[in-house]
Design brief:
two-stranded antiparallel ribbon, 732 residues, globular, 3% strand, mainly alpha
Length: 732
């Protein structure tokens, strides 16, 4: 397939992104305050006994006939001088109403709606449009937007997945099982929140869905290992032609952009927006400046800093800048911010993810299969639920393009490693894919040098970011100090004059630490900065013995002590400063001051909370999972280095196994964030054709050198002139 096959897809992506910018600029989220109230007449049901009320008696025909009929104002009177909206009251009973009253079902008064032309004459088209529920003047075409429920999207996804992946000749093949697993995971994801029990005492539907999702994730681990060790793979071709798939691609693109534009902002978007405002104005990452909103990755804050410069955010009070952060940096005000910058980031990431998967399918197989992959990506429920969460969408986009660059010769390995390491800033589990990639590249000559060079370039960029874009923060008692097993010896607070007063802390048992305590201890001991002598020290306290990392700082004194700590650490050597900045970033991300409550329980909590040692069992199970994942990564690297020369499909299988294992070992388990697995899963159908060579063109047969299998009678046109004609003899 030539490159012209990608032009329609590129045009679709550009037009979709343009639609995203326009729709994000003009869309408004309907809120209860903005929705117009519908004038409903007061129903006098309480004054009339009905059949549903105990002790009620059916009304007779005479009572119904003598009931006074309420009418509205005459049309001539309203047209003459009244501009107010007419009040609609109950209509007189009809024959059917009288018949219903015989049976005891007395119907309440019905409102009679005035004609549409009369409403337009009274209020005008603009007023009428403003009163339509869930519509805005700036988005008049929102009436055409389909309102699909979660169950509807689930069954659409199941039908599309099975229709695009299942093939009957042969029926028993790996890619058919892959499609069934994708469809089954779509169904299991839709019932994660159902806590109803299937039986009187049996497990709940949520527990069954968690179990099914975990088993499917284990299947993808096994599937990745199978592909990593396979030398040949069966072929696969698209079920639908390229022309027909274009319609599905347009529908999938519209579905994804609709989800981006009309989904409410997530907490990650609000946190990143606040951090982006700070970074856009100061050039520093917001760690230590946004308590409760500093638990996001530095890569996400950097992306939002650029978005804030392009589309400055605002709210009802005006522009949002760091100087007036007290006006908007609250939970209620952050829920009413202008969502255009956040939606622009989400839309750009979705379009990039869409294009990366399409290009991956095109490079590995054909344009038709690339279109199939992007449709499967968008209709999958695990993708749609993540399109409004930039902290999850960002690493998924980088992983998709990392796989896509693996198909590019010469410079592909460099950019693949560069994006893989960068994605680890947003999802640290992605770094487990670097060892298999390095082992694969080392068997291919200078490609190993490209991967090493890209890794070193990323490390250099991270070092510069820590040095010039991170200001160290005070270690917290419930953060790095607890992780390191340190107990503060002193307490810092403000005295009556407003100065920092330091007293001895009460003796307490140091907190228990896990196997990561040595890392935190090394980061804390990298700097041993004493507290500024301007502080007021209690009796029998040597100022030189009081270190910043040995303080328990009260909230009132934290700003003053924080500023003094930053001035002291600014004079540290480069190595000590980098260690302190790294500890600050890790502490803010790993141990945030406030952690939002998850909508769904984690599988570890659901499975182990009933036992007597539920917390210890959960920690032990996660450690076993991490150990098995590390062992699998080691075995894959050994196979890449010591076995036969690995092929490209084996690297893709290894990355799929590592990604699925990382999702299983993470805190949320296999119950969320399936978008991280989708690029590697969707590459499997394309790898089938790529590993087996795909449809090859007809080769020109080589000329035969030996005698022909059957003697040919020479034609007179092929005879050589200087040779006699053949003689024909007949034996008698």
């Amino acid at each position: 397939m030539n490159r012209t096959g990608l032009r329609p897809l590129a045009a679709l992506l550009v037009s979709g992104f343009a639609y995203l910018l326009v729709a994000a600029s003009y869309s408004q989220e309907p809120t209860p305050a903005s929705r117009p109230a519908v004038n409903r007449p007061a129903r006098a049901a309480a004054s009339r006994p009905t059949a549903s009320q105990p002790g009620s008696k059916p009304a007779s025909r005479a009572a119904a006939a003598t009931r006074p009929a309420a009418t509205s104002k005459p049309a001539a009177t309203r047209a003459a001088g009244s501009r107010a909206e007419p009040t609609h009251t109950a209509a007189p009973p009809t024959e059917s109403g009288a018949l219903e009253s015989k049976t005891g079902a007395v119907e309440e008064g019905r409102r009679t709606a005035p004609p549409v032309a009369e409403k337009i004459q009274l209020e005008g088209p603009a007023k009428l449009l403003e009163k339509l529920p869930n519509r805005t003047v700036l988005a008049p075409l929102s009436a055409l937007r389909p309102a699909l429920s979660g169950s509807t999207l689930t069954w659409i996804a199941v039908v599309m997945i099975l229709a695009l992946t299942l093939q009957t000749r042969p029926l028993f093949r790996w890619h058919n099982l892959d499609g069934i697993m994708l469809a089954l995971s779509a169904v299991a994801l839709s019932v994660r929140g159902e806590t109803a029990s299937l039986g009187p005492t049996g497990p709940t539907l949520q527990q069954w869905s968690y179990l099914v999702l975990t088993l499917i994730a284990l299947y993808w681990v096994a599937r990745g290992v199978q592909v990593a060790f396979a030398r040949t793979l069966p072929g696969f071709g698209p079920n639908v032609s390229e022309g027909a798939m274009t319609i599905f691609v347009i529908a999938a693109l519209a579905m994804g952009l609709n989800s981006v534009v009309y989904s409410p902002l997530s907490e990650a978007s609000r946190d990143a927006l606040a951090g982006g405002i700070y970074m856009a104005e100061t050039g520093r990452l917001p760690y230590g400046e946004l308590p409760g909103r500093e638990a996001r990755s530095p890569l996400l804050y950097t992306v939002y800093a650029g978005a804030v410069k392009l589309l400055p955010p605002s709210n009802s009070d005006g522009p949002m800048v760091w100087a007036n952060r007290a006006q908007w940096l609250t939970a209620d005000r952050m829920s009413a911010v202008d969502p255009n910058a956040a939606r622009m980031v989400n839309g750009a990431l979705f379009v990039l993810l869409f294009g990366g998967v399409a290009w991956l399918g095109h490079r590995l197989h054909s344009v038709a299969l690339g279109q199939t992959l992007v449709v499967l990506l968008v209709v999958f429920p695990g993708t749609l639920e993540c399109l409004s969460q930039p902290d999850i969408l960002l690493p998924a986009t980088l992983l998709a393009w990392s796989l896509a660059f693996l198909t590019v010769p010469v410079v592909g390995s460099f950019f693949a490693a560069l994006l893989l390491v960068t994605s680890g800033l947003a999802w640290p589990w992605a770094w487990l894919g670097l060892p298999p990639l390095l082992a694969f590249a080392l068997r291919r000559g200078w490609h190993g040098f490209s991967v090493v060079l890209a890794t070193l370039a990323c490390l250099a960029g991270m070092t510069l970011g820590l040095r010039y874009h991170v200001r160290p923060t005070l270690p917290r008692v419930d953060g790095a100090l607890a992780a390191a097993g340190f107990q503060p010896n002193f307490v810092a607070n403000l005295d009556e004059s407003g100065a920092v007063a330091i007293e001895k802390a009460a003796e307490a048992k140091p907190p228990s630490a896990d196997f990561k305590a040595r890392l935190w201890q090394a980061l804390l001991q990298a700097e041993s900065t004493p507290v500024d002598s301007n502080a007021h020290f209690g009796p029998s306290i040597d100022p030189q013995s009081v270190l910043f990392r040995g303080l328990e700082v009260a909230p009132a004194a934290r700003p003053n002590v924080q500023e003094a700590y930053r001035k002291a650490t600014a004079e540290l050597p480069h190595a000590a400063y980098l260690a302190t900045a790294l500890r600050s970033v890790l502490e803010c991300v790993q141990f945030p001051e406030t952690r939002g409550a998850s909508a769904l329980p984690t599988p570890w909590k659901l499975w182990f909370e009933g036992g007597p040692d539920g917390e210890q069992g959960s920690v032990l199970a996660r450690r076993i999972g991490k150990g098995l994942l590390g062992l699998m990564v080691l075995l894959l690297c050994v196979f890449m280095l010591r076995g036969p020369r690995p092929e490209r499909h084996q690297l893709f299988g290894a990355l799929l196994a590592v990604a699925a294992g990382a999702v299983l070992a993470s805190e949320t388990g296999a119950t969320a964030n399936w978008i991280w697995l989708m690029p590697a899963i969707l590459a499997l159908p394309a790898l089938h054709a790529s590993a087996s060579g795909g449809p090859k063109p007809m080769a020109t047969p080589a000329p035969r050198t030996g005698p022909p299998a059957y003697p040919l009678r020479p034609s007179s046109s092929l005879l050589i002139a200087d040779q006699p004609e053949p003689r024909i003899s007949v034996e008698k």
